[in-house]
Write a structure and sequence with these properties.
Blueprint (H helix, E strand, L loop, with lengths): L1 E6 L6 H13 L6 E6 L3 H10 L3 E3 L8 H14 L3 E5 L1 H6 L6 E6 L13 E4 L2 H9 L7 E3 L26 E6 L8 H8 L5 E6 L5 H11 L5 E5 L5 H6 L2 E4 L8 H8 L4 E4 L2 H6 L7 E3 L4 H12 L2 H18 L2 H15 L2
Parallel strand pairs: 1-2, 1-4, 2-3, 4-5, 5-6, 6-7, 8-9, 8-11, 9-10, 11-12, 12-13
Helix pairs in contact: 1-2, 6-7, 6-11, 9-12
Length: 343
């Protein structure tokens, strides 16, 4: 089986991180040979190089970018691809039709006008699969395959420099993602004003960082908000945090929920589509109302005040992850998908 992994993404991002993670995992299988085509971001090229996956870079520019379109066709034909898996709409728009099957992996509710060349679709949530069918994609062409996250244990000599706590007994809240309005970090900072015993560690980069810092300053909690920058590896921070918070207004999946489950950090999440699909409220996490800072603060305080509930969430979260989101399970489903759709 010969699969071309095509990504027209950015230097940072959750989809890009999973692209590199899945391609690396599939490289361990003798059942598939891969080629990667992506923009020239060193971060991801280094990962692919380490995994032994040959990678080719293109600009994936505007409509006049003929070089990318011609390059994709040339590589796919020389590689004799069975499947071209397109990540993000721009990749699907550039990928030509040919002897291979064009497939698309969607991690959000995107317009399908850019996916007209695709014959098969992956949704990484059941909600996205439902959306695809509602948009007219035949049920037999829609496949549900979730994500997995980094399962490696931390090395014994791990030496992450954590921010210095203001007090030894101060709780740590962790949140992560692109600093964008969709992620609801403004709501979380507002909730922090009602949680006097906690510091917020915010891992991510994006256009809202300045506004978030100003908001924290205005609300009087700037000294309790630590901006960590983008973190490819959340494991050390999940191991140190008392509660993980997914505050998103819009969150189709919520890789961060899987991260918290797998690495033993109890969590609170706003009721966006992805977390609601994953979390059973009160069993493996707490759900709060969207854009409701008081309700978010209440859920966080309840969890901080109950060590037994935190322990329960950790155990149930690990069980939920193992039941359907492990690396072995997800890579096996991708291999089955490729086998089913190849010409």
């Amino acid at each position: 089986m010969r699969v071309a992994q095509i990504m027209a993404g950015q230097e940072i991002g959750g989809a890009e991180l999973f692209y590199a993670r899945l391609t690396s995992a599939l490289a361990d299988s003798a059942d598939v040979s891969q080629m990667a085509i992506l923009r020239p971001h060193k971060r991801w090229l280094d990962v692919l190089l380490a995994a032994g996956v040959p990678a080719y870079t293109y600009r994936f520019g505007g409509r006049l970018d003929v070089q990318t379109r011609r390059g994709l066709r040339r590589h796919l034909e020389v590689f004799e691809a069975d499947v071209a898996l397109n990540w993000m709409s721009r990749a699907a728009r550039f990928c030509p039709e040919g002897a291979w099957t064009n497939a698309a992996r969607l991690g959000g509710y995107y317009s399908l006008k850019y996916y007209r060349n695709c014959q098969a679709f992956i949704g990484n949530t059941q909600g996205i699969c439902t959306y695809l069918r509602q948009q007219g994609v035949a049920a037999g062409r829609v496949h549900y395959i979730p994500n997995f996250i980094d399962e490696r244990p931390l090395p014994a000599d791990n030496a992450v420099q954590f921010p210095v706590a203001k007090r030894d007994d101060e709780a740590v809240l962790l949140a992560a993602g692109r600093l964008h309005r969709n992620k609801g970090f403004d709501v979380l900072i507002e909730a922090l004003t009602s949680i006097p015993s906690a510091t917020l560690w915010l891992a991510g980069e994006g256009p809202e960082q300045g506004n978030l810092a100003l908001l924290a300053e205005r609300l009087g909690v700037r000294d309790r908000v630590e901006f960590l920058g983008w973190q490819d590896d959340l494991r050390p921070y999940l191991g140190r945090a008392d509660v993980f918070v997914c505050s998103s207004r819009i969150e189709p999946l919520g890789n961060v929920v899987l991260e918290a489950w797998r690495h033993g950090c109890p969590l609170v999440a706003a009721r966006a589509a992805g977390p609601v699909e994953l979390i059973t409220d009160g069993l493996n996490g707490s759900l709060c109302e969207l854009e409701d800072a008081p309700d978010m603060a209440k859920a966080i305080m309840n969890l901080l005040n109950s060590a037994s509930q935190r322990q329960h969430y950790v155990a149930a979260g690990r069980e939920a992850y193992a039941a359907g989101f492990s690396r072995a399970q997800v890579t096996a489903r991708y291999l089955q998908f490729f086998e089913e759709i190849k010409p």
